[in-house]
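Recall the central idea of this unit: under ordinary conditions, the amino acid sequence of a chain determines the structure it adopts. In this exercise we apply that idea directly, starting from the sequence alone.
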Amino acid sequence: MDSTASTPANQSVPSVPLTVTDEQNSALLTDTLNLLGAKSPDPKQALIEIERWIEVLKATERAGLAKVTQELQLVHQQLSSSDTDTHDLAETLASLGIETGKVAEETTNDYATPLAQLGKTLMKLGSQLSK
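Accordingly, the structure predicted from this sequence is:
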């Protein structure tokens, strides 16, 4: 190999868009609601669920989900950090709940009710943490 030859630039790998079926969306909603309804949710499982949501939302072409994705990323950072202030996490969860509720109000399919429930659950969790 010639040491004076230019190094080839890294070729960008085309990303394959994630296709999410209605069944997968329903399962994700159900899994998340079950996790949040548990008496002692597993923190590792919570991080996995958040990562799933982020990937699904990134793959969704629906407008208006950027704020939800941003809030989810912040929750993930806060849960991953050992020095996160509980009050800060509570505020982020409440904000995520509000944004999720807004999405539920704009949804016209079978996801409206579980999304509204998820929004309320997140707000309630935020409220409980802030006490």
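The chain has five helices and no strands.
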